[in-house]
Predict the 3D structure of the following.
Amino acid sequence: MEHQDITYAKEAGIATITLNRPDKMNALTPGMFEGIYRWMEESTKDDEVKVIVITGTGRAFSSGADVAAMANMANQPQNPPEPQTRTPRVHLALLIQNCGKPVIAAMNGVAVGVGLDLALACDIRIASDRAQLCEGYIRRGMLPAAGSAYFLPRLVGIDRALLISWTADMIDAREAEKIGLVTMVVPHEELASATRELAEKLAQGPTIAVQKTKRAIYDSLAMDLKTSLDYTAAVRRDLLKSQDFKEGTTSFVEKRAPVFKGEQIQQSPPNTD
């Protein structure tokens, strides 16, 4: 299925959203933001989808926003602002973070500006050894405004986040892995298979526990230790009632691989006799 320059595919519990504008190095247009947003919403609501992958075609993951389109907009007469309803470019990072499912960026090449923002919003970044990353905003007299100002200091520290943003220097894949900007680097020819292997592993895991783990880790960023411990203890009590927990413990005792279904055990109604 397609939406402008975005393609979408779903197979074996894995949804893949692909930036498909290789002739423009997947420079993001407003329509492409809408397409990514739409398919993220669709995948989030689809119970058959367990893992979401975002990737690109050609030499780039995304070279950033379409600068030519931005320049054209900047030269247009300024009209009164329209009432703001939804701005996918800004809220896309929120949608990815709030999605309970694992979201993997398979970075096939260059990721610049808002293209890097998109990757940083994902839970895990698998980069091709040909990938290069850059916060290019400063070159356009702009600041990181689609997620990097939030994600960068959490990933690489405040000083390095400022250095990366102020200099707009290009960072190769190995350096990005070293400083924590990407999760792992694989040979370019193995990017698709490595991403697929991880996605399948997560998709075959205990769905409820996988999703609750994502939520607990992100929510705990804004909590003190005691609040986080109380919060995760409450979630743990719910997971103890799940079929996946029962399957995990039973398979361990039976010395076999678990077969998770992501189902919740229904509580019996209280006895009123």
About this structure: The chain has two domains: 2-203, 207-253. The first helix runs from residue 30 to 45. The chain has a mean pLDDT of 87. Residues 83 and 90 are 15 Å apart (CA to CA).
